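Sanity check

After download, print the first record. It should look like this:
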Amino acid sequence: MDAYPWEISPEELAGRYLRLHTPAVCDVLDGLGLFHQALPPEIQPLSREMKLAGPAFTAKGAATTYFTEDDVQFAFQGWSKALGMPGPIGVVEASGDRTAAHWGELLSNASKALGGKGVVVDGGVRDVDRILPIGFPVFAKFNIPTDIRGRWRYVDFAVPVRVGNVIVSPWDYILGDINGVVVIPKELVEEVLVTAEPILERENLIRAELTAGANPMEVYAKYGSF
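Expected structure tokens:
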């Protein structure tokens, strides 16, 4: 994997992003002319409180009609490449497959134990009742009980993948919350962070004034946004 690309430490970067929310980050990206960085709205967290932030480690799969032990070894070897990243977020392109769960409890436990901070699946997940207690953030399109064996297999790792209209490359930054998931291009991660943080502070001031009964139009005129 590539070397860590940012000056802010991994722990500080993740902590500061986790204090933000995806709408504020999307507003910043809009201001930079990047209007298509949110992943499809069908991709949602397994529970409302789940939130994730970290560099993307990408995986791509495709439908199949057979299964071999080589598929298992290839998957293990592929995911092991993420060990070179601090607090990675898995991003799985299922290539439109809807026949199987592309993520489950065992992968969640393994990823958490090895330092992973969550996964975004453009497809299905199973073992939801067993994932929720371990607190590993999983965002997916749907729940389904079927295994991938004989239905779907991994074909590549650490390559650009397409999720909806968004191309996600390794080291792009992923932020996900109850509003959805947004992808920050690798080269803009620190710029977007320092631009979004004042937006959050301004929102807190606006909220306080509105809660106290201020005239909404006067508040809007004062801050220039809602």
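If your output differs, re-run the checksum step. Summary of this record's structure: The longest helix spans residues 189-211.
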